[in-house]
## 1
Amino acid sequence: MSIQVQHLSKQFGTFAALHDVTLNVPDGQLVALLGPSGSGKTTLLRVIAGLEIPDTGRVLLGGQDITHAGPGGRGIGFVFQHYALFKHLSVFENVAFGLKVKRGGQRPAPPVIRDKVMRLLELVQLDWAAARYPAQLSGGQRQRVALARALAVEPQVLLLDEPFGALDASVRQELRDWLRRLHDEIHLTSIFVTHDQAEALEIADRIVVFNAGQIEQEGTPEEVYDHPATLFTYRFLGKANVLARAGGQVTLARPHDLHLHSESVPGAWAGVITRIHVVGPEARVDVARSDDSGALEVYLPKTQLGGASVGQVVYLTAERQATLPEGESPQRFRLRS
Ligand SMILES: Nc1ncnc2c1ncn2[C@@H]1O[C@H](COP(=O)(O)OP(=O)(O)OP(=O)(O)O)[C@@H](O)[C@H]1O
């Protein structure tokens, strides 16, 4: 089911947590809200969930205005960063909870509940753990139970607030892949909040970049990464090397888009290698520019490092670069609405 928010604003005292936010999430998409801490991502999710009432603006679910509907009646599943499972209930009981507390005629019969819970536990690959208690599971497993629990009541949409934030890197990676696969299987319209750009780029259909309570840019991962419309988006999506500044514009290049040469080539910048740092299969090379205009960081496969060494004079070219206005974003961009 599609989600639309139109001209949403929300103040906390004098602080504008959301300012005139308009966003369309088509049916079946997985959308990432990406932005720094305090930029309003969680507030937007809470407004959509009905946990926060906006000062102005509307929320529509499948075209229907639900701005003033209570959180219970919205058909929205919510998964938080800190898996709030019931500690005294088994995994099975946790997932069954939302079904068992349904009123009278809406409550499925016990065998139906059992079948449904077991199917969901299979979906999150935890059917073997049905009788366990949350304390007997790892963090990633608990988070999968939380997801199964949110899905049990057949929500129309799923909201995930930093669902993997509290987990270590390898478990996060595993759950990311898994969430993407799950989404491809069930096509539930989902919005997830993250401040991890790699996570957003990897699994989202669309990315919405937030900055200070407003949408800075939205688009597919390729659009926002390859065509950032503002300096803020460029910097937020990855490491940025400043190549030049002139007339209120700044020219930037990503570390992967810089090439190192041992001999001078036309249009290259000269510099000296100050550090070589190998991170797994990748080499990161710091170069101090000879014209004293600052340091550049270059990433390349370790196998292409050749005989490069600290102190060596090298020449740099940029395969791709972007020129953007400096300073605060003069306007908010939207690649496609
Ligand atoms: N109930 C509240 N009362 C007062 N201020 C609030 C309240 N909820 C949020 N804020 C403020 O609104 C701003 C946006 O908060 P929000 O949680 O939406 O940001 P976020 O982008 O989700 O950040 P994070 O990534 O740290 O979770 C923050 O400055 C926060 O302090």
Note: The longest helix spans residues 169-186.
## 2
Amino acid sequence: MAKITLDKLRHSYLPNPAGPDDFALKQIDLDWTDGGAYALLGPSGCGKTTLLNIISGLLTPSHGRVLFDGQDVTHLPPDRRNIAQVFQFPVIYDTMTVYDNLAFPLRNRGVDEARVDARVREIAAMLELEDRLAMRASNLSPDNKQKISMGRGLVREDVNVIMFDEPLTVIDPELKWRLRSKLKELHQRIAVTMIYVTHDQTEALTFADQVVVMQLGEVVQIGTPVELFERPQHTFVGHFIGSPGMNILPVEVDGGVARFAGHAVQLEGPIVRQGDRTEIGVRPEYVRLADSGIPATVRKAADIGRYTVVETMVGDHVVNAITDRLPPAPGARVFLHFEPSQTRLYADGWIATEVWK
Ligand SMILES: Nc1ncnc2c1ncn2[C@@H]1O[C@H](COP(=O)(O)OP(=O)(O)OP(=O)(O)O)[C@@H](O)[C@H]1O
């Protein structure tokens, strides 16, 4: 187990990068605590795999350092970093039994057979593979093959970090849900530093204590799932997390007052940053259909089960509201109320209000 530090890390795949756009990772500074559960979350192409490969040693960064417990490992090859990795697709030995597959990483390091046996059975029980231990891996379903792959990642007790790269891609939706919570439970039991890479917010938010949100090669926010939901530091986080995401609406700011479509909007607190582009962010959960406020027209309503998402239009702007009441019919004229304590200002994408103290 180890604390992982990324120090001024940058990476370009080009031999002579000319500007920031030529970098797959712009600049990353991070400290990951020993034993923590972390997720790297972001859309395709934001640099997650690049970062993972730098940590595992498959890639040497163009600039900066990777430290494990303060020791510089930037130039160490993967096999000297003591890392376990679980990939998107199963990496197993088809001709071996499930038992031997799970035992392999331990036997390979000379662990004695009694310990191998205890550990294999423990991991197999956690992953509900006990009754398949004697089966040949080739006879298993893709789901179970991927479970073995995960088991092989989890079986060693001496690793610095276990990294999961979109490990649930091949798993069917029902089992996905179970494995997601199982992985969280496993982390609590074995307390090894784990990094989980995904573009799926549900997977990231279920698994991680801390989520690192990336966009275009940059970290835009690191926070607990609640922090990311409650107070996005960037409009990208607001929009990317939540279903539907945060309403991001253009406003004009004059004399400390923000106006959306000509209506003054009360913010969570004082404005502390200026910018060329100003927007407010308010989650649909905090937009109420009220008796007075900003006039809007209902476009449609979608019943999501426990609540309804009402899509309204204010001029050309879509504003989503969540309600647990019977939604108004399409075409109805309504008024919107934005909960002031949950309405933030963003300047050039970054949060620009503080909470009143
Ligand atoms: N081997 C490579 N050579 C050149 N450019 C690359 C290489 N690998 C990745 N890139 C580029 O680097 C950027 C980051 O890619 P990366 O694969 O790290 O993103 P990602 O978030 O993992 O995406 P995905 O979820 O699709 O794997 C992208 O613009 C990609 O095109």
Note: The chain is about 25% helix and 30% strand.
## 3
Amino acid sequence: MSGRAFVKMHGLGNDFVVIDARKEAFIPTEEQSRLIADRRFGIGCDQFIIIENSEHPDADAFMRIKNADGSEVGACGNATRCIASLLMNETDKDNVTVETLAGLLHTKREANGLIAANMGLARLNWQDIPLSEERDTLNIGIKLPPLRNPVGVNMGNPHAVFFVEDAEAIELEALGPRLEHHPMFPERANISVASLIGEDHIRLRVFERGVGITSACGSGACAAGVAAARRGLTSRKIRVDLDGGPLFINWQEDGTVLMTGPVSTAFEGHISPELLHENK
Ligand SMILES: N[C@@H](CCC[C@H](N)C(=O)O)C(=O)O
């Protein structure tokens, strides 16, 4: 079979095309990354992941992350758990360390088969973003629903978490793209709406930067867990229900965030050499 081998994986429906470039380098252009992620013209995924050799003595591999729009980013929680699971199967270990642009991430296979990733320190670098009453449209051309000020949490990538009465009632499809590109977020941002649905239990919907609404966002769940605890809505250990299912978040006393959930492999294949040379 000609063409580059790939594996299609997902964490709660947040899906990835994974290419192993440890033996044979693979350096896609932005256009090639977009094409691979395209659900009509390519294979289709939320993020395109390239596994590379790491030069760090403590890392098992380096993971490069490209959003569906071709942009390269620092963190992806669900992909970290998927790649960790691949590396665990390959090495027969239950603990592996994945290097990303955001740093070294330690992972563990739990006895129940779920994969836990320590996503590192949560940085509240633009916490409690102030929005004044009169800025209730944020100049995005639509009247906002009753949103409280968002909490800004950086998990190696930027998240703005808005707590609302009912996350299902928010028109995230309309709000997401406008807020993602709002000037208050210089690097753009992943936009979440969250509501409390029980004790230490929240509902979360995420509009991902460079992608759109996804069925689950791991770093978004971490950011929401930190934001909920910071706002005093929950304790530091919570369940986050995403469209694709639950993730378990623990904002540990050392400031790092542990995320636990399932991973799946959907299929394997080869990328047609034609695809990478075609222009749409
Ligand atoms: N799906 C992700 C987040 C991927 C990156 C994000 N879209 C960004 O641009 O920061 C996850 O599981 O964390």
Note: The radius of gyration is 18 Å.
## 4
Amino acid sequence: MAHSPTRRLGGSPFPPIAEYAFLSDCETTCLVAPSGNVEWMCVPRPDAPSVFGSILDRSAGGFRFGPERIMIPAGRRYLPGTNVVETTWQTPNGWLIVTDCLVVGRWHRTAARSKTHRRTPMDWDAEHVLLRTARCEHGTVDLSLVCEPNFDYGRKPESWEYEGDGYASGIIRNADTDVTLRLRTDLRLGFDGRRALVRTTLKEGDTAFVALTWRAHEPMLPTTYAQAMAAVDSTTEFWRQWLSRGMFPDHPWRRQLQRSALALKGLTYAPTGALLAAATTSLPETPQGQRNWDYRFSWIRDSTFALWGLYTLGLDYEANDFFSFIADVCEEADDIQVMYRVGGESDLQEQVLGHLSGYDGATPVRIGNDAYKQRQHDVWGTVLDSVYLHTKSRDYLSERLWPVLVQLAESAATHWRDADRGIWEVRGEPRHFTTSKMMCWVALDRGRRLAQMRGDLKTAARWKTVAEEIHADVCARGVDERGVFTQYYGSTSLDASALLLPLLGFLPASDDRVKATVLAIADELTVDGLVLRYRTEETDDGIGGEEGAFLICSFWLVSALVEIGELHRARQLCERLLSMASPLDLFAEEVDPPTGRHLGNFPQAFTHLALITAVMYVIRAEDAEAYARPSPST
Ligand SMILES: OC[C@H]1O[C@H](O[C@H]2O[C@H](CO)[C@@H](O)[C@H](O)[C@H]2O)[C@H](O)[C@@H](O)[C@@H]1O
């Protein structure tokens, strides 16, 4: 390792998943360990091979900037309203503040157009720079910089060389991945093979910066601390300006709502409008387990649900770009895939990286995701629901998108009777999943509403007939003897995705079957009150081992409990879930109920989008209850 090992509970060299900070410029993302080591970064795209991969193997590269010898910071926070992280360090002789961000600046491409951007240019753009600044606040601090990339997921170490005169700039290249990294600092760099190093002592008031870029042409690196601080300021302004467009209640949970919104925005890929499911691959869903997947792609389901979360907060611009992304990927195709790469590419073939030891020994490490080939019948409904939601409030539907939507509704009408792999994309045999059929109903229900809005009454009537047929079928075959909606036709197993029934308006929350289903899930599909997707021992998902409680399902339960009038129970669960957030208010995909440890990829859009909906459900219900309550004077 590039630095002395951190003392950790349990002796693992890997920080707990929840302790990473997440940075983004809406193009590239990275994770910073509490030690100040960047342990995950893939460039130039989030699905490209990593240059810093020590989250998956301690030899796969990292970039530390922090005090010598001290690895546990005194405190860390996001600058409010931003994805800029500030770390405060206490050392034996002084105090240091380090600020980290992926720089966003004003749109600067004037002469030549971008080769990757397909969406309308905004005022801001990623500068493709990871920037780290340091300021000694009190006393003296021995500062250390160790930048040790290892290209291609740790398979291609290269050596640094100086660039230009003096000690301020270095360059390192890998021909196979076609990535060149440049480092610039106002300190003196030295090189030791693949490591770029700085050792210096800062006195009170001293400052320093280091900037790393992967931009091949016209790298935009600061040369002075003042320029570096200007870049931090513009990045801060970008995030705050973006957040200001949202509507956040004046409520104690506003902080969590804003962090979730910022995490979702940070998972967008601005050049195409795609949205990542998470920033990482193969963070395990079971400690040392094999449920390790690559989430650095744009799932149609995860993305449209994320738009729902952002829409709830009044943040709806992202939807325009994502719908254009959908039009891009569907226009030339017969049907929609369940996921795409962020550039819209449709091949996500899965591979195992056998050379990596995995996070805390969890193997295999996978890249790509074979679920892309599956048939998952919720996909049509998730798009149509999302488009309907946004069209309803704007009274505008893109003419480019309509033929795509017709195709999606027709696919639902044609295939709803077929078995599929379901919303959880299980790797077992296809089944007649109840939620998949329900989502086909959503596709035709929202499709007929959209057709009506366009005045196409004939199509609307035809889709309404199919929607009614699906509805009747689900109610007849998706319910068990207890009157509870089950995982698939003919089974008695529970599935947390049935919580979507009231949330998507399939049946009113007052319906006895809905109430029975929500309560059965709350009472029988939980561990310590936290919701499982399904019981792994009952569901053939094609993978061995257990998994943690799924946070999206636990937040869905909060919303569903509100729907069925169980506000007190909903509030309690919501409070408990929020208390399980990471120190920086981020969430992975799952938690281990007994320990509260985060499991799975991080940060995970699913969790943050469901958090937003659940918190807003509780706040709105509490407001309604307060207004309904007679005032003390009456
Ligand atoms: O359960 C096995 C499957 O697990 C992953 O899927 C999960 O993550 C997706 C991305 O967030 C989400 O859309 C899906 O609903 C989840 O079940 C994995 O991606 C699959 O390959 C795997 O079969």
Note: Residues 277, 293, 295, 299, 301-302, 369, 371, 423-427, 541, 606 surround LLGJG24Q (CB under 6 Å).
